[in-house]
Write a structure and sequence with these properties.
This protein has three domains: 175 residues, no CATH class; 136 residues, Jelly Rolls (Sandwich); 85 residues, Immunoglobulins (Immunoglobulin-like), CATH 2.60.40.10. The chain is 2% helix and 49% strand. It has one helix and 34 strands. The longest helix has 7 residues. The protein is globular.
C-alpha cells in the first residue's frame, strides 16, 4: 500500500486553484479581431539550452535561420548551447485547418494562444515536426516559440501550410510584435518580487510596479523600480513581504502612466490557476457534468492508467474506512489527521487504484475550488476532477474532467471510463 497526503495547507505542496464556469466546455481564448499591431517578432536570446542566462533581445521579421558550425546567432552569444524565445502574434489570412511545420536542429516547442501545438524535444539534425490547428481569418493569435541548439550548427524555421494548400515560411506580413514588455512574479520563501523584460526597441525608461492588495482590492503597499537605462532589457524590483491574506500584481508602465505589459497576478498560497471560459471554446470534450471530486492515480510501469488503456485491466478495492461529512469515497481508505497544526485528509491507496473523494450535492455554478496537494517526486497527476457523473471504484472509472499537476505541467483530460489527455499547459 502506498499513501498520498491531501493537505489543506502544507508548505511543501503545490496549490492548484480551478475557476469553474457554468458551461460544459473548457477553452483557450483566441486573440481579438480589429486590433492594431506592429509587424515583426521579438526574439530573446539566452546562453544555455534551458534559457539559463539572458543575453539580449531584438526585433526580427520571421523565423528562418540556419547557423553553421561556429556561427553565433547574435553578438555575445556562444555558437553552441543556447536557446531563443520568439514572442508575438500571428494573423490568419484565411479560415480553416493549418499545418504548422517546424524544421529544427535541435529542439523546439510552439504554442498558439497557450496551447502546445508542436513539441520536438530533440536533439537531432534538421528534422520536421507538424502540428495541426484551426484558425479564423483576421484573428491575431498569441505565438510563442521556444528553441534550443546544443552542439554544432543550428536550424530554426517555422512554416505553415494554409487551408488553400500553400506551404511557406510564415511570412513577415502575418507576424506581429507582442506587448512592449512582459512581467512575472517570483516567490522565494517569505518574499516576492517582480521581473520585467522589455520586448521592443523602445528606449523609454519604463517603470516596473509591484502592488500588495487586501482581499477587497485595496492597495496596501507598492514598490516601483525604473528601468535603469535604455540598454537594460531585464530588470527586477526589490523584494516585498509575501503575506497570508494578501494578493499581488505587477505590471510595466510607461512615463505617461499607461500599462504596456501583461498584468502578473498572485494570490497568497496558490501556485497555479486555471481559467475555464465557456465563451471561448477550443474543442468540446463532452456534456456529462455534475459534481466535483479529488482523485489520485498511480502511474507505475505496467500498472495504473496507461496499462488499463492497453490491457484492459480490472481493478477491485476494499470499501473505505470512513466517510467524511458531505463527501462520498470511491475506493481507498480516507481519514483526517492533524500535523503541525494543519488539518489534513489522508488517502490510503492500493497499488493501481485511483481512490476518489467526491463532494455531494454540488451544482454547475461559477466558483473557485482550491486545495494544497502533496505530490512525491516523479509521481502524479494529482489535482481535481470536476463535473463528474457515475463515479465507481477504480482509476478512471467515471465520466468528467481531470485537472492535475504532473511534471511541471497543468494537464487537462476528459474521462469516459478512460483517460484522453488534452494539450498540457506549461507552468511558469
Amino acid at each position: 500500500m502506498k499513501n498520498k497526503r491531501w493537505s489543506l495547507k502544507m508548505a511543501a505542496s503545490v496549490c492548484l486553484a480551478v475557476i469553474l464556469a457554468a458551461s460544459p466546455f473548457a477553452a483557450l481564448a483566441s486573440s481579438g479581431q480589429g486590433e492594431s499591431y506592429t509587424q515583426g517578432l521579438w526574439a530573446d536570446y539566452y546562453q544555455g539550452k534551458d534559457f539559463n542566462s539572458y543575453v539580449t533581445g531584438r526585433q526580427e521579421s520571421k523565423i528562418d535561420y540556419q547557423w553553421n558550425q561556429g556561427q553565433r546567432p547574435v553578438e555575445g552569444l556562444g555558437s553552441e548551447n543556447y536557446s531563443i524565445r520568439w514572442s508575438g502574434r500571428v494573423l490568419a489570412p484565411e479560415t480553416g485547418a493549418y499545418q504548422l511545420i517546424s524544421n529544427i536542429d535541435d529542439g523546439v516547442k510552439v504554442w498558439l494562444d497557450g496551447a502546445l501545438i508542436i513539441q520536438d524535444s530533440g536533439p537531432h539534425y534538421p528534422a520536421q515536426t507538424i502540428g495541426t490547428v484551426t484558425l479564423e481569418k483576421g484573428v491575431y493569435y498569441d505565438l510563442t516559440v521556444d528553441y534550443y541548439n546544443g552542439e554544432l550548427g543550428g536550424t530554426a524555421q517555422l512554416s505553415w501550410k494554409t487551408p488553400s494548400g500553400e506551404t511557406e515560411i510564415i511570412p513577415a506580413e502575418n507576424l506581429y510584435l507582442p506587448d512592449p514588455a512582459e512581467v512575472s512574479l517570483t516567490v522565494e520563501g517569505d518574499s516576492i518580487y517582480a521581473q520585467g523584460l522589455v520586448r521592443s526597441e523602445s528606449e523609454e525608461l519604463f517603470s516596473l510596479v509591484v502592488e500588495r492588495l487586501d482581499q477587497d482590492g485595496k492597495v496596501l503597499e507598492m514598490v516601483e523600480t525604473a528601468r535603469p537605462d535604455a540598454e537594460t532589457m531585464l530588470w527586477e524590483t526589490e523584494e516585498m513581504a509575501y503575506e497570508e491574506g494578501s494578493d499581488y500584481r505587477a505590471y510595466v508602465q510607461n512615463t505617461g502612466g499607461d500599462i504596456v505589459s501583461n498584468t502578473a497576478e498572485r494570490v497568497y498560497g496558490i501556485d497555479a490557476i486555471l481559467n475555464v471560459d465557456h465563451q471561448a471554446t477550443a474543442g468540446e470534450v463532452g456534456t456529462l457534468l455534475y459534481g466535483a471530486c479529488l482523485e489520485d492515480v498511480n502511474h507505475e510501469l505496467y500498472g495504473g492508467i496507461w496499462s488499463q488503456m492497453v490491457y484492459g485491466e480490472s481493478f477491485a478495492e476494499p470499501s473505505s474506512s470512513m466517510n467524511i461529512q458531505d463527501f462520498t469515497s470511491y475506493g481507498g481508505s480516507w481519514n483526517t489527521q492533524e500535523e503541525d497544526g494543519v488539518r489534513q485528509i489522508v488517502a490510503g491507496r492500493h497499488d493501481g487504484i485511483g481512490p476518489k473523494l467526491m463532494i455531494e450535492g454540488t451544482q454547475c455554478e461559477t466558483g473557485v475550488v482550491s486545495a494544497d496537494v502533496w505530490v512525491g517526486e516523479g509521481e502524479g497527476p494529482a489535482g481535481f476532477i470536476v463535473k463528474v457523473t457515475d463515479p465507481r471504484i477504480g482509476a478512471d472509472n467515471f465520466n468528467g474532467y481531470e485537472i492535475g499537476l504532473m511534471n511541471n505541467q497543468v494537464r487537462i483530460g476528459a474521462h469516459r471510463y478512460n483517460y484522453a489527455e488534452g494539450a498540457p499547459v506549461r507552468c511558469r
